[in-house]
Amino acid sequence: MAYQAVSTKCPNCGTPVDIDNPVCESCGTKLYITNYDTFFNMPQQLAQNYANAYREPLAARPNDGQLNLSAAMCFLRLHLYDQAEKAFERAMTDDMNNPELYFYAAVALLKGQRPFLAGRAAILKIEEYVNAALMIHPRGIYYYFFSYVKYDFYFNKHLRTSPTYQETLQAALRAGLTTREVQQLYATLGTAKPACL
C-alpha cells in the first residue's frame, strides 16, 4: 500500500522530519518505537514528545501498523491505557505475527490495576491476547504475566482455572524468564509484585 509522505517534528530535537525515515537526520534519534524494552527507561517528557510527533502522521495514515505500534508503546508508557489498547488493536490488523502487540495489548487492558479488580470480560480478552502471543513465541515473560493474572484473578477469588498459576509460573521459568523482565512488567503495570510470584 502506498502512503503519502507525512512530516512531523523529531521527538528529540524538534527538527522537521519525514516520518518515513527511520531516524532523524539531524540528531540520529530513531523515529519509531519498535520495542518496549528500549523505550522503558525513556523520560516521561520524551515519551510525550513521541506521542505528539505521531499525531499528524496517524491522522493522515490511521491504518499504518508501524505508526500504531509506536504510538501504542508511547501511550502505554504514559499510562494512557485506553488509547494504547486501541492503537495496539489497529497495529494487530497490520501485523498479526508480532507477539509483542498481543502481550502489551493484554497489559494495557488491566489499565494500571490488579487483575483482581478487572471484570471477567477484560480477563477473558487478556487471556485471548496472551494465548495468541504464546502461540507465536512462547517467551517466559508472557507465561509469567499469565501466571500473575491467574493468581490475582482466579486464585485470589477462589475460582478454578487450568493451567493453574503455579503451572504457568513453572512454564515461565522453563522458558527463560529474567528478573529484569519481571521488574519491567511490574513497573509498567504500576502494581506490586505478589510474594508468591
Describe it for me?
It is a single chain. The protein is mainly alpha-helical and 197 residues long. Helices cover 57% and strands 3% of the residues. It contains 10 helices and 2 strands. It has helices spanning 36-39, 44-53, 55-60, 65-77, 81-94, 99-109, 120-136, 140-155, 165-174, 179-189; strands at residues 7-9, 16-18. A two-stranded antiparallel ribbon has the order 1-2. The chain is elongated and about 55 Å long. The termini are far apart. The mean pLDDT is 91.
Give the gist of this structure.
The chain is mainly alpha-helical. The protein has 10 helices and 2 strands. The protein is elongated.
What descriptive keywords fit this protein?
197 residues, mainly alpha, two-stranded antiparallel sheet, 3% strand
> What shape does the CA trace take?
elongated
> N-to-C terminal Cα separation, in Å?
45 Å
> How many helical elements?
10
Percentage of residues in helical conformation: 55-70%
Q: Give the SSE order as H and E letters.
A: EEHHHHHHHHHH
Runs with pLDDT <50, length 5+? none
- Share of β-strand residues: under 5%
What do the pLDDT scores average to? Answer: 91
Strand order of the largest sheet: 1-2
- The count of β-strands is 2
Major sheet size, sense and barrel closure: 2 strands, antiparallel
SSE class: mainly alpha
Q: What's the Cα radius of gyration?
A: 18 Å
